[in-house]
Each structure stands twice: as C-alpha cells, then as structure tokens.
From TrEMBL:
It comes from the Archaea. It comes from Haloquadratum walsbyi J07HQW1. Belongs to the binding-protein-dependent transport system permease family. LivHM subfamily. It is found in: Cell membrane. The chain crosses the membrane at residues 20-40, 70-87, 116-136, 148-170, 182-206. GO terms for molecular function: L-isoleucine transmembrane transporter activity; L-leucine transmembrane transporter activity; L-phenylalanine transmembrane transporter activity; L-valine transmembrane transporter activity. The lineage of its organism: Archaea, Methanobacteriati, Methanobacteriota, Stenosarchaea group, Halobacteria. Its main location: membrane. This is Branched-chain amino acid ABC-type transport system, permease component. It holds the Pfam family BPD_transp_2. PANTHER family: BRANCHED-CHAIN AMINO ACID TRANSPORT SYSTEM PERMEASE PROTEIN LIVH, HIGH-AFFINITY BRANCHED-CHAIN AMINO ACID TRANSPORT SYSTEM PERMEASE PROTEIN LIVH. GO terms for biological process: D-alanine transmembrane transport; L-alanine transport; L-isoleucine import across plasma membrane. Keywords: Amino-acid transport, Cell inner membrane, Cell membrane, Membrane, Transmembrane, Transmembrane helix, Transport. It is a multi-pass membrane protein. GO terms for cellular component: plasma membrane.
Length: 218
C-alpha cells in the first residue's frame, strides 16, 4: 500500500516544497480514513483484555504500569535505536542521508535514488504499522477514527522537530508526548493536547524552522 500511495500521490510532487507534501499527506490521511470506514464500518471494536499491572509507589502517590505500557516503552525505544543504527551504520542509511542533503548530487555519485525512495516507503510503512498496532494494544479498542485523533499531534511533532529531519521527528514526538502526558498533573486531561500545541508554539517562536533546523542530520 505504501508504494501505491507514493506512486499515485507523492511521486508527481516529489520536487515540491515540504509544505506541499505535508498538505498532500493530510489529503491522503482523509482518503484512507474514509476508505477504512467504508470497508470495515464505523463501529468501535474491543481488541484486548485488561492486562496485568504493576504498582510503583512514589512519595506523591502510586503509578500503575501494565504489560502493554512496558511493551510500548521497550518496543518504542528499540525502534528508535534501530532507526539510528540504520541511518548511521548501513549503506542504505548513508544513502538516505545523502539524498536528504542533496538528491541531485546523490544521483550523480551513483546512488540508486528511486530504490532508496522505495525502501524508505517500505520501512516507513512498517514502522507505522507497528506503531498503530501498539497504540491499539494500549488503547484496547479499534475504530476507523483512531489514527485521525493522533494525526494533528503527529504533524505537530514533525513541524516542531523540523520538516525533513528524522531525528527531529523523534525529538518532536518525545516533546509533544511528554508535554501532553505531564500536563494532566496541573490541568484537566481534556486540555492535554492543547498544552502540547502551546508548547509547540512556544518552541517555534524561538526556532521557527524547528528544533533540528539547519543541522546536518537525516
């Protein structure tokens, strides 16, 4: 599916600006969202039973961590480490970084750019699939609207980290996620996402192009 999305929606505008690609991503997300609703229906389905939990006692209270939470932390950390090793230690990762810096120069030096692009789409699709599975495992229910609820936060993380930077997206995701989670200590949980967006605005006022703007990272 990822290769089909690339060929139909993104390949014709691959040389356009990052904002154009971002807007196209929103359109593709809408299309896939309603395609899922048409095929599977709008109903929400339960997926997992209540997992076993472990209580951790702190001075101010108790924090309960279940097996799904632990799996999220371990797998998420492992995937971030895997992406780092891919970029820094493998031939494909070095080709990806070269294309990120200068695609024309990478093509002239003999890097098979189309093959690299296809590999990126396959890897990205795999990571998205794992992330979606882990989110549904943690949430316990499955519905066509689940991805849409996260989409704005994902875009906020990408913009905050710096469009075009993988490490920026990881950093932006951590900042947005931690802000939304920690903010519920002081404000109602209904405003957690608002707190994350406020944090994004504050950081962008200081660094308008994102945290990793202007750095030579992939």
């Amino acid at each position: 599916m990822t290769l089909a999305v690339d060929k139909i929606a993104f390949k014709p505008i691959r040389d356009e600006s990052g904002i154009a690609l971002l807007i196209t991503s929103v359109g593709v997300a809408f299309a896939l969202r309603y395609l899922m609703q048409f095929v599977f229906g709008p109903s929400v389905r339960g997926t997992t039973s209540q997992p076993a939990s472990l209580s951790l006692y702190f001075i101010d209270g108790v924090v309960r961590v279940n097996t799904h939470d632990a799996a999220l932390i371990i797998i998420g950390g492992g995937l971030m480490l895997g992406v780092h090793l891919l970029l820094q230690r493998t031939k494909l990762g070095k080709a990806m970084r070269a294309m990120s810096d200068n695609e024309d120069l990478a093509r002239v030096t003999g890097i098979p750019t189309e093959q690299v692009v296809r590999s990126v789409w396959i890897i990205g699709g795999g990571l998205s699939g794992i992330a979606g599975y882990m989110f549904i495992l943690w949430k316990g229910t499955l519905g066509f609207n689940d991805g849409w609820l996260l989409l704005l936060l994902i875009f906020a993380a990408v913009i905050l980290g710096g469009i075009g930077s993988i490490y920026g997206a990881i950093t932006g995701g951590l900042v947005i996620g931690l802000t939304a989670s920690v903010s519920v200590i002081w404000i109602p949980s209904a405003f957690a996402r608002a707190a994350a967006f406020i944090m994004m605005i504050v950081i962008l006022l200081v660094k308008p192009s994102g945290i990793f703007s202007g750095r030579s990272t992939a």
